[in-house]
Amino acid sequence: MSRDVAPIVLFVYNRPYHTKRTIEALKDNTLAKDSELFIFSDAPKSEAGIDDVLAVREIIKEVDGFKKVTVVQRDTNWGLANSIVDGVTDIVNRYGKVIVVEDDMITAKCFLEYMNDSLDKYADAKNVFSISGFTYEDSDTIESTYFVCTVSAWGWATWADKWSLFSRDDQMLKKIIEDKSLWDDFNLDGVYDWVELCRLQLDKKIDSWAIFWYATIFLHKGLTLFPSKKLSSNIGRDGSGTHCGKTDNDDEPTCFDYKLTDDLYEKADIRSAVGRQVKNFIGKNYINPIFVKSKNSESPQVE
Fold first, then answer.
1. How many whole angstroms separate alpha carbon 215 and alpha carbon 198?
2. For the chain, which terminus, N or C, has the lower number of CB atoms within 10 Å?
């Protein structure tokens, strides 16, 4: 009996070098030949961006090495948030599950295997909302895989029933902002001010789909599975990304002998350790002023 492998959705825009590396890494995965790949290519915002978008579209024309490749080329500029929400919704509703990658992420050879193993194991777990291939810091002390009530958009997966709960209703963010008793938990015990991101989203200073996804998971008391070592990594931290700073970090994700946990709850010691990782990682890699741009400036895209 053949395995029911989840489809991959890849979102690309105007970065040929990053797109090529992302596709090469995915193609090198052990389950690539068994996986359907859907590539969503956004249109340029202006005439100035046409050349880079066309260069990316030339690359994705030639993609092979997967069970099937489908390219969706937008005729108008949707923006990252709208494109991701529409693409994920379309594919996950058709297939029941989905693996999501953007054009600045590289993956370890076992990334797809890990994702599919996890999607199979936790499909019926009502409190498991997403699977992350990324972790904030490689660790030899945290368990091989673990659950935390937070979210990562750097190589992730979910199921149709969980994604059906996703909402971009502003009232959800307002609920978190207005209930101060939620703030400490939502901010992962105060390590980063995600409540402020809710405010900035409501003020249209950022355009984020992920803050809504995190709020959805949080308010439903959901969990995300993380690996103790990176199986996906962001290569957009070279100054080409919108909300990340320019750093020397280009961590190559590598496979390890992971064991999927049977403990479907958040452990206090692991939550504390992850909090320290998040604080350290964000401090090194994010340009915080991007979140406070003027309303008169172009709203930055934030995952």
1. 9
2. N
